[in-house]
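Write out the 3D structure for:
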Amino acid sequence: MSPQKIKRLYLIPILSKALDILELLEAEKKPLTLESIYQRSAISKTSVYRILKTFVHRGYVAQTQDGAYRLVSRPKKMRFGFAGQSAEMPFSEAVTRSLKEAASSSGIELVVRDNRYDADVAIKNANEFVAEGVDLIIEFQIEEQVAPAIAHIIARAGIPLIAIDIPHPHATYFGVDNYQVGFEAGEMLAQHAISKWKSKVDWVVGLDVAEAGAFVQSRINGAFVGVRSLLPDIPAESYIRLDGRGLRETSARVLGDFFKRHPRTGRILVAAATDTSALGALQITMQSQRERNVAIVGQDCIPEVMEEMKNSSSPIIGSISHQVHTYGPRLIQLGVAILRGHAVPPYNYVQHRAITAGMVREGEAP
């Protein structure tokens, strides 16, 4: 007679331990300290601590003022609404991917919509989020003029708001320090002119995003100051702002018009408000055969620009990385903290990093 087969139990040990802790809290019907749970559960204190923190984050357990833990009945899953800038903008799509991954790993339901770089669409999306009753909204849209309208819609519904890159009334700000990233881009341009052109510069062009308002425009303000900090003798009339709208085609067109107005102009430094705008500047520079006398620095370090910088003869000499992979985890943490009633700073800046073409070619940049 063949020996009876024993059925294998497909169990997950850490999940079993987590359920033991939930059952213990349910049985006691009163808050328990970490030490008490550790002593009663026979689970390592490190595991007990991490399991409890996970339960608190997910809303299954609450922590009292004296640090004890109690069970919360029927936790409600948080729903965040996220309106992305535009599915056609590489940086916006990278933010969306990062946020989706972070929401999934944190147990947050994320409702995603596309603002399509359009003010009317952004207002429509805000109204739809309110109608759906999301718990918190993360807004990423480009036009400063409609920010008050969007914020009013959301505030009237009593929904907390996080605004990416462009401040909105009643909102918690999240994004880069625009002036500082611009300043570092300007320094990079000036250093290129010093080392390659013997400090001779005819024009400093800022490819701006006028509709984004003063906060984002401070990227170009900072870039001009960054250039002046190393090249103080460039006359004020040599600095010019063009509205590229942060877009490739528009940036190529306005810079191309500038080239036509100044056909004999020599060396030009270009500070672009976005990498997409920098690619437009690259396009018209190559078409005009001015690549030897133009240097471009962008913002965002999108993949296409990183690939372009591998070319040693490219006019794009650098970009400022906004560390987009950190957006999702930090936005989720910030949103949860707001909904939990914790005090958060009004301005939450992300880390950034100046990336030169040389760093890319030498493998020193991600």
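Residues 13-71 form a domain with the Arc Repressor Mutant, subunit A fold (CATH 1.10.10.10).
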